């Protein structure tokens, strides 16, 4: 990597906009950065990392929690996995031959309930390439599948990526074909706005009649159509929404990934038969709207806001008058600009920033601040 590329990288990091900062807060604030998550068991959803230094390709896949990535794997080559569901931290178990967890050393040899993929070795998508990919110059977004939780390039999904993709969930074609009942739901739920989805399902009426010991459903949308078409009769479990949708037999092209609108999980059938099928397929989480990444991110944002609300510095600022607040903000912005210039010089020269360099920088800041106080350019009461 050239010094010019390093300069761009450092400046880019320093100039991250509020949207990126909020995204990072959403992902990381939902996880504990100080304590290993292992004692919590299989955590419903958490930020995860894989360590290429400790568990390189060719060995066993392993994942570590946010806190362990900081405390046990500092300076290691880490793969950021974003979030995964129902995972227990592996740090220091038998997959790590030369490392003991500093935060929670007493662990079982293996977490048999964990699920792994090629993501844990730093490759993603059906193309099995790293991200970012140094050999791929095409700008493309990566989107995570709800079921397998792999990350896929938008151009490899086999479908058009919709607008506002961050408000929707995606299931890749491989998972759709593995769980074929999802195509039935897709024909009625996918590709529709939440409002149109509600209207459509409110309009749909299902007429179920009992014949001997079985239930039959016309699966038609109105009484007039039911009178006109008496030939459609499909056996169905009482109140089984999936069977009713199958009876309608609405056609859809069964190829490519499927994007699902907000709230689609609440429209899935939760009858006893469907619950059993989902449980046997390992898909019970589809009935849980709090399982979504969006719910996790909102939890992280709420945690961050609560922490900021309890921040002693913010409380102290609230007790200052307007002039004092503006002076402190001005000082902060000056320091941020000077820090950016300071790091920029190191990057341009290809030098490594040491702790001693940072210490000297802040000593200079303190000296300049004292000088401004003495000249009357800055004051505080």
TrEMBL record:
Origin organism lineage: Eukaryota, Metazoa, Chordata, Craniata, Vertebrata
Pathway: Protein modification; protein ubiquitination
Zinc finger (UBR-type) residue numbers: 34-106
PROSITE patterns xref list: ZF_UBR
Molecular functions per Gene Ontology: ubiquitin protein ligase activity; zinc ion binding
UniProt source species: Sphaeramia orbicularis (orbiculate cardinalfish)
Protein's name in the database: Putative E3 ubiquitin-protein ligase UBR7
Enzyme class: transferase
Alphabetical keyword list: Isopeptide bond, Metal-binding, Phosphoprotein, Transferase, Ubl conjugation, Ubl conjugation pathway, Zinc, Zinc-finger
